[in-house]
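Table S5 (text form). Sequence records supplied for joint modeling of the three-component complex.
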Amino acid sequence: MRILLGIGQTLFESSPVEALANDLAEAFEGFCSGIEILRFPWVRGDESSVLRQLVAYRSLELQVPAAGDERQIFVALETPALLIPHAEKIVWLAHFREGPGGLGMGTRSPVARREWRRIHRAALSKGVGALHSMSAEASWELYRATGVEAPVLRPPPPPTRAPLPPLGEDDLLVPLAEVGSRPLLVLDALARTTAEIPAVFAGSADSCQAVRSGAEQRGLSFLVETVEGDVKSLGNRRFFATLLANRGSLTCWEGHRALATSRRVIACSDSGAVAECLHQNGDGDLVPARPDKIAAALDRIWSDPASGEAGDSSDHALRRGGGGWATSISQLIGVA
Amino acid sequence: MRVAVVTDHVPFIRGGAEILLEDLVEALARCGHEVAVVRLPWKWHPSDAILRSIAVARLIDLSSELDVPAELIIGLKFPAYLLPHSRKVVWLVHQHRSVYDLWWNVFGLSQAPEGQSIAEAVIRADRSAMTEARRRFAISANVARRLRDSLGLVAEVLRPPVRREELYWCHSFEPYLFFPSRLSPLKRHSLVLRALRLTEHPVELHIAGAPDHLGMIRALEREVAELDLEDRVRWLGHLEEPELRRRYSRCRAVVFPPFDEDYGYVALEALLSGKPVITCTDSGGVVDTLGDSGAGWIVEPSPRALAAAMDEAWEDHQACRSRGEVGPHRYRELCPGWEAIVESLLCA
Amino acid sequence: MRLSWFSPLPPAQSGVAEYAMHVLPSLAEKARVTVWALPPWDPGIEKLVEVRDLSREDPWRQLNDSDCVVYHLGNNGQWHAHIWELSRLHPGVIVLHDLHLQHLFVAYHVLWKQEPEPYVSAMERCHGPEGRAVALDLVAGRTTVDEVSERFPLTGHALESAMGVVTHSRRAYRVAAALTRCPIALAGLPMATRARPRADRESPGHPCRIIVMGFLGFNRGLGLLLACLHRLRGEYDFRLDVYGLVADEHGLRSQNSELNLADRVHFHGRVPRKELEAALQDADIAVNLRFPTLGEASWSQLQYFEHGIPTIVTESGWYGDLPAGAALPVRPDQGPEDLELRLRELMEDPLLRRRVGQAGRAAVEIHHRPDRYVERLVHLCHRATVYRGDAVALRVARTLSSALSDLSVSAAREAATEIGTVLAEALLDGKGGETKTIPAGGCRGREGVE
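The corresponding structure-token record, covering 1134 residues in total, follows.
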């Protein structure tokens, strides 16, 4: 069996789904003889551009294997891959975003919006082997726009992701995602804490620059350190807690990483799938995305290290009952 | 400049076109441009699916992007070069060959009930796309010639270099002939095996490459058994680049007689390795690559003629050496390097 | 021009096979023709044109190398079902020998392929919900082809993929023009006259010989003719000879006996060509009725004309277009009365028989010349070749119709118009500054729906 992962593509912009797809490809590798990511460009144009593309993608056909060749499954993660008809199509929705931001439209035309929803409704109501979403937020986005229901099937943690370094007593770790990070929110919170909490921000060069500028404006430069690159580049640094303030995470993986090595996690309640997982499993601390609330949570953990613990860390709650990749894949593809 | 490179996407197939794409993207980035790659999956079988693919390609207008548009697109293959854009350059890897040079071939659209109608649509769409491009280039003289013969359009030849060309070298001339290529009918492995059967000397052949589909390798293995060549043929499978270069460096000669090849990286890799190439008169781009340089043997596409060339290469080490020696110079004549290529593509 | 040609050939008992022998000699002078046929065929044809065996090889390579392909469609599934199937796969010019094609499509879809759903869909496409309901009745055996044929001709189904259409009557031309955008030609059914009419038409031998021939279905009015002859038997000395397959021969023979006509009316069935020619040469009057007309032009009528036989015809369809005086008309709503009147006129008046016979002969010599037919056919083929390119563009647009139907009506209309312009730019040959677009209806993909 071979798998095609379908995602969208906005030219010259990075996408969180791209990274997700790469991780999924790695995870699927052991379960199929080949996996490839198909990227379908989406142009954020005017109303007629949107209509033309909706028609184009509903018409696009993928070459299917000849009789006797290996089975090929098409797993669509987002628009416009969701629209493409395929005899063996499975939808595993990462997100469903209409407006600017994410893979949305460039125009705000009500006609375009109406047809976008209509065509997605048509595409997802028939000719789909199985329909799932990766998070409750994605399910909600889809339902609100189209009335189509998609049960949640969360992807287990990626098998080869390196864990964070062990917990220490030193700094607060703030991972910054490529899309959706809110460094200024975190800096505002740090400015409100009673204790002076040193923080390490890890992310892209642009994100780190934004942090440095923001810290300077708030007089926090002495507390703030930036590290360009992802959390792997932190080596053996020790942190007392991880603050997940990125908006709109598609999966629980950031939470997995944090909880795998740390009992102390604070996440904003609007951080997407991570928040759902922490809430569902009672792990970590969920706070509204407000500087005062975040600051209060940080002060609480800083002053009382025992609070915020989430129970066993070795095989923690997010993995309980998950069953890993074999279960997820059989749920996805077994029903196709 | 923001440049989008557009080409097709055939899942699970990786050949020269995919390598060219990666190298082009890297070269553009090295020259300081922002690059996006658009790979358009499409369907070509049954043949009327081609019509739909044409329609879809024409509907995705990359220049209508309101936020971050591409300033120029470079189209490489059908149907991707049909994507409209106000500033388009075509660097043609190949057209949809079953409409053109492979029309009468067993793979050609002449065998399909609606072949004529579909071919007409492809030709018209191609003509539109090619004439709306500001400039046209082709990866080889063979591809340019096909474009001229089929549509009457001229394209400037711009040959892509071999990846990591500096890492090829000539080590020795050990007793084996090397045939590195994707296992696909047009590469004509069967012809080479039948030639091997006819050689007078105990020529040994090492074959490297992944099959387009599993049935291909099984069929060739059966043919080897039927021709009683099991002790003379070695299947190496897919080789990573360092091992591939090592095999080139040590072989006696390279055998590569595909049918009407678009370009033929294999021949260029052989030139860089200082090894002669055994090919056929109808091998297209490979013949253009060798030209009059004497860097190999160009023979009739028959088992007997190939066998004679293979025997000569096997027996006459000096001939191999002297023919191989002209290779690197010939390569330099043909390939201008990536900076020159990027400059040509972007000056449209 | 390189033409490929699909039709039955002699010795097939088909008017289209006869027609082919009148066209091919002239056509071979104007084009390089390859005929594809099922065996057997008269070997003499191979002296005129290349003939290839459709049962032994696929025609695609040769067709893809042709400039134009000509398909002959008639109502008889035995001769035309396979031709129609090929015309769907490789579109070309359709020569319409019949307008009412229910028998053909029922034979193809229901009997041969045993897949009634495409037949039902075609009936719905061409004739709406009522057509669909009738099709379901037919498939279920609740009605018959003869009962539905007149109201639901399915001509459109034959022309769905056509690149060009040749018609043989004004009515057929009008019907085709309403169903298709491709080029259409009107050309008189060709006949190369070989027979010489009998000189002594005005001095009939006794008895007066009446002839009816052809594929004699229920619409041929044979029952009506027998009833009329029964009324006349006491006044005139006549004999009726019926040649060809008769749909309800048993019923007609019974009627014949009951009407006490057994000594005057003779059913010969199919006979060898020479015997038929001899019968035509001897005939004094021909009767060629259609209640209703199912077809297009009548090959048997041209044979009557060739032999100078005065004919009584139904005044409808192609027969209504015949030159004045070339045949004697019977009004469809006055069948029995007009038929009796015409028979009396002809049996009583030898000069009338001669005049009408000569007018018929002149009609075929002027309006049914093979060379003129071939000229029009070849001209149409050239136009069809041009149209084929545009038709492909329309087809490309139609590949999007399913997706368009997912949009709301107003958005689909807007999108279809834009898409038509986009695709036209890519796929239509711009000639002399003419602006072309693909009509929005083309993108919708539903025949006749805008």
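Note: Chain C touches chain B through 28 residues (CB under 8 Å).
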